[in-house]
TrEMBL record:
<feature type="transmembrane region" description="Helical">
    <location>
        <begin position="6"/>
        <end position="25"/>
    </location>
</feature>
<dbReference type="InterPro" id="IPR001129">
    <property type="entry name" value="Membr-assoc_MAPEG"/>
</dbReference>
<keyword id="KW-0812">Transmembrane</keyword>
<keyword id="KW-0472">Membrane</keyword>
<dbReference type="Pfam" id="PF01124">
    <property type="entry name" value="MAPEG"/>
</dbReference>
<feature type="transmembrane region" description="Helical">
    <location>
        <begin position="119"/>
        <end position="143"/>
    </location>
</feature>
<dbReference type="InterPro" id="IPR023352">
    <property type="entry name" value="MAPEG-like_dom_sf"/>
</dbReference>
<protein>
    <submittedName>
        <fullName>MAPEG family protein</fullName>
    </submittedName>
</protein>
<feature type="transmembrane region" description="Helical">
    <location>
        <begin position="73"/>
        <end position="99"/>
    </location>
</feature>
<keyword id="KW-1133">Transmembrane helix</keyword>
Length: 147
């Protein structure tokens, strides 16, 4: 009971791995074209490739990093909701909404990367995350809506 929310969790994990593969197959040829021999590189700094590679070759890498940021909150709140047995129904739909919006965000960022579209998708997904967090708090602290 309440485990439906785990399905979108697994889908977002799988999508993150898809973006990892996409990043590797995009970045390695771009690095080679830029004259970077990864067998000879020692150490690096975050963002160092941004100054070397064409921006569109970095978009997938930037999105992969984004999938390791805010979605960590989603994973935690989804697990709390699943453990409280409230992961079915509306909460599952909210989780699917979050995942669908994050996948759409990835596709926008990795392809044409229009910031206004990305921001709208990010904002909508964040609203889903706020609602899930409120519902997790309600379940954990025993708050009930009366009406």
């Amino acid at each position: 009971m309440g485990r439906d929310i785990l399905q979108p969790v697994v889908v977002l994990i799988a999508w993150t791995l898809v973006m990892l593969v996409w990043m590797v197959v995009t970045r390695l040829p771009a690095m080679k074209a830029a004259g970077i021999d990864i067998t000879k590189v020692r150490g690096s700094k975050p963002g160092q490739l941004d100054a070397i590679l064409p921006p569109e070759k970095q978009w997938v890498a930037h999105n992969y990093m984004h999938l390791l940021e805010q979605p960590t909150i989603f994973y935690a709140v989804a697990l709390v909701i699943a453990m409280t047995g409230t992961g079915d129904g509306f909460n599952a739909w909210l989780a699917w909404g979050y995942v669908g919006l994050r996948i759409a965000h990835s596709l926008v960022q990795a392809t044409f990367n229009k910031v206004s579209v990305r921001f709208m998708l990010f904002a909508l997904s964040t609203l889903c995350l706020f609602a899930l967090t409120l519902h997790a708090a309600m379940a954990v602290f025993g708050w009930h809506m009366h009406g």
